[in-house]
Amino acid sequence: MGGKFLLFPQDGLVRVTSPFGMRNGSKHLGVDLASDNKGIDWNLAAADAAVTRVAFQASGAGHWLEARVDFPIDGKPAFVRYYHLKEAPRFYDRTGKPVIKAGDKIKQGEKIGIEGNTGHSFGAHLHFELRLGGNLPQHAVDPVPYLWIPKALPIDKGQLTHIQFKKVKFVEDFKEGKEMIMIKKGDNGVNVTNAQNIFIALGYPLGGYGADGKFGEITDAVTKKFQGDNKLNVDGIIGPETWKQMTKKVSDKAVLSDKAKNLAKQIIALQYVYRERYFAQWAERPFFCE
Hints:
This protein has about 290 residues and is α+β, with helices and mostly antiparallel strands. It has helices at about 160-165, 190-200, 215-230, 240-250, 260-285, and strands at about 5, 15-20, 20-25, 25-30, 30-35, 40-45, 50-55, 60-70, 80-85, 105, 110-115, 125-130, 140, 145-150, 170. It is about 25% helix and about 20% strand. The chain is elongated.
């Protein structure tokens, strides 16, 4: 495959057994996925990436693997983690099924692990993490909004899975270079400033902070208000659908000056090329793991 997106990291049933977020008083840093348990449940490389760690932790992650994705996500270096593999990860599609080591390159879609129950685990599953901006715990984000699913994979009808995958992104619908940046609370930068300027133009006040480029509590509340007003999914994340509605509204607003309308058009274009620009930027910068 080799597309600049995160492929759903299993080849069977799409089923969530525990989401990202607070759980039993502590933060669950990834999403737990359990396939259909029919034969071997393979774990797949979500993207072309360089393996940074392979280890075993008896009281925690069991057999696990970390890899740095070959392209940035939301303008940030991205790392993926696979926990509780049945055995040490291997290149199961390659001749001789060699063991995977730090420094190896994995290719999107190839089999790199078997869903297992090693470490601190209560049933076979894959704990999958996405970390943006670094590979420390504080860099963990919910991976679900970033996952693209092949149409051939069945999706569990359970409520938990349905809640997590309200809007499924299918691999077959992905177009290279056409994905838009997703921003959310805690993000900073030009995309946040662009969004804030649109909100201000549409009459959504941002208080004394204005368009400061910081996605804080006020911008989060305004985003959710806009999403509710426009019958969008109210999650506080400015993704493709929210961007589309924001730019449409600001372009259609009759009282806007030509300068503001041109800004809206520029923002639309920027969302489509921004990731490629960041890719070039990060390719020139060294990044050190912990």
